[in-house]
Structures are given as C-alpha cells and as structure tokens.
Amino acid sequence: MRGEGCQTVIDARAIIDPKARIGNNVSVGPYAVIGADVEIGDDTVVGPHTVIRGPTRIGKQNKIFQFTSLGDAPQDKKYHGEPTVLEIGDRNSIREFCTINRGTTQDVGVTRIGNDNWIMAYVHIAHDCQVGNHCTFANASSLAGHVSVGDYAILGGFTLVHQFCTLGAHSFTAMGSVIAKDVPTYVMVSGNPAHAHGLNSEGLKRRGFSAQVLQHLRRAYKVIYRAGNTIDQAQEQLKTMLDECPEIAPILNFLQQSIRGIVR
User: Fold this and answer.
1) Taking a C-beta distance cutoff of 8 angstroms, is the pair 20, 35 a contact?
2) Which of 20, 40, 89, 156 is most buried, by CB atoms within 10 Å?
3) 3 state SS of 257
C-alpha cells in the first residue's frame, strides 16, 4: 500500500504484493518484485529487476540498483522458514547483483544494515550480520553469517570474512583479504590469511583525527603488535594510556570483547 499524499512512481511492469508498504516519493523500476511484509521508506529508489522479499524493512533515501536481491531466505541449512527479518537503514547505496539475506533463529533473527553505507556490485551479506554506518564494501566483498562490522570500516574488493568474525570501527581490509579472526578497531589488514599491516592512518586523517591522536594510536598499535605482549598484557598497558588519549578506549573495548581472537 502507498503512503498518504504519495508521489510514488511504480512502473506498470513491476510486481508488488498488495500487503507491501511503500512510502512517499518512491521509485520502483520495471520487473522489480516486492513481496508481502516489505516496508520501503520515503524517497527510496528501487531499480529494475530487483527482488525484495519479506519480512524486510528499508528506510529512507536508499538507492537500490538493478538485479539486487534483498531479504530472501538465509543460506543456512538450519533455516526452516521462520519469519526472520532484514533491516536496512537510510541513505544506503546498494549496487548491482548484491545479495543481503534475512537472519536466523540461531542468532538474533535479524540482519541489520545501518545508515550511509556504500555497498558496491556483487557484495554478499549473509544471515545475521550486523553492519554499522558509513561503511564501504568494494566489489565482490562477502560476509559469511553472524559477522559484525563497525562504523566507517572499509572492505577492499574480494575481501572474504569468515562467520562470527568482527571488524572494528575504522578498520580497513586490502583487496583479496581472507579474514578468519577479528580485525581490531583502527587496524589495516591484508593477505590470505590476513595479517595486520599497521594503523588505518589515512582513513583516520580523512575523518578528522588529529596528528596528536594518531601518534597515540600508533603507540597503542605497537603495544598490541610490536612489543611482544600477550593480549592481556596489551590491555593492561592500554588502560594506562586512556587519560592521555580517550580514543584508545574503542580498541581496548574491542580486545576485551573479542571471542575469535584478533588478526596478528
């Protein structure tokens, strides 16, 4: 159903279930298929040949390009038709041939994509993944199930992330990285298997981190990766650095919460 006072433009060749809820000023291209229990927010563009299954909630001002598949059943043999959900926030760009699946009851039951993400062609985001805001997924990068990605993370093209891994905020993965452990906040990784290759300094500069803060974060990186410390020892040293640089807190919290262990 359409919102009140809507200026929505739906191509006559699109197939939309009567139970779908379509907001104002939404554009739906030819041959798109939108199922029941799908909600699409205002000012969103749905390209031709896109398929959106429900339950799926899509926010405002998203641009969904042609041949994308959103909200279909998870690729999990334990899934037996439970009414799990896909939630997508606002102002995301989702390019051609992307696939983003709903969650499973073995986890929280929801796959979530935040706001202002740039998701390039052929990206796959599997069931129960939790993606933050302002992330960039380059072409053909893929998340297995139950992966968490922090704000401003950048995944290079053809990055592969194993299930249950976490990528911290402001982290960076180089092209073709294969990741089987957690990538800490601010850290840059590359390789198969992926190894740490320093601080994501360039990305942090672009986001307004000062030269002084970057200097402290480089010290924190050395504590974790260059000083021969165990993770427990690194955490104790990082705690002593918090007064000088509060920006160390996110990386300390990440280490405390990491379950799979970090990329070394």
Assistant:
1) yes
2) 40
3) helix
- Is residue 127 among the annotated active site residues? yes
Residue position matching structure tokens 């029941």: 36
- pLDDT tens for residues 66-96? 999 999 999 999 999 999 999 999 999 999 9
> To which H or E segment does residue 51 belong?
strand 51-52
Examine the residue annotation and report whether 71 is marked as an active-site residue of this protein: no
Q: Is 41 helix (H, G, I), strand (E, B) or coil?
A: coil
Question: What's the DSSP call for residue 111?
Answer: E
Which residue of the set 47, 145, 150, 157 is catalytic? 145
Give 29's contacts (C-beta < 8 A, 6+ positions apart). Answer: 11, 14, 46, 47, 48, 49, 50, 66
What is the Cα–Cα distance from 85 to 112, expressed in whole angstroms?
9
Instruction: For residue 218, give both structure tokens.
Output: 């480089």
Please give the model's pTM, rounded to 2 decimal places.
0.95
Cis status, amide bond into 55, omega within 30 of 0: yes
Catalytic residue among 35, 114, 127, 146: 127
Tokens of 60: 């405002």
